[in-house]
Amino acid sequence: MAEEDLFLASLHYDQGVPGLGWVFFKEVDSAVERVVVNPSVFRVIDKQLKLRKVRLKRFPYAIYFTIEASEAFVHDVIHSGRDTGFLPERMK
Fold it and tell me: Which of 18, 21, 23, 30 has the fewest CB atoms within 10 Å distance of its CB?
């Protein structure tokens, strides 16, 4: 699901300003790199799921991930204005 959401967000930004979709992808890459370098620095937002989030700096999106066996797993990239109540179902 994260890949599809990223693709749609990129298309949306490119329709408004050509090339902005690429900037969006680079920002996502930067946020993922911050997670890879030090995933435990991001607070747990759901203790049961051990779900964490990192916000993008230039776009209203957040990356939701978990840490398992010293590896970070990205579960979704979601617009900040969107309800995240569906995340537990997507993580199954």
Answer: 18
Buried b (16+ CB within 10 A) or exposed e, 44-73: eeeeeeebbbbebeebebbbbbbbeeeebe
The count of other CB atoms within 10 Å of the CB of residue 36 is: 10
**pTM for this prediction:** 0.86
39-66: pLDDT as tens digits: 999 999 999 989 999 999 999 999 999 9
Spell out the domain ranges in the chain.
2-90
What beta strand segments (E) does the chain contain? 44-46, 51-55, 61-68, 71-79
Long-range pairs for 66-71 at CB < 8 Å and ≥24 separation? Answer: 66/91, 67/39, 67/40
Please tell me the CATH superfamily of domain 2-90, with its number. Answer: RelE-like (3.30.2310.20)
Structure tokens at 71: 């590896």
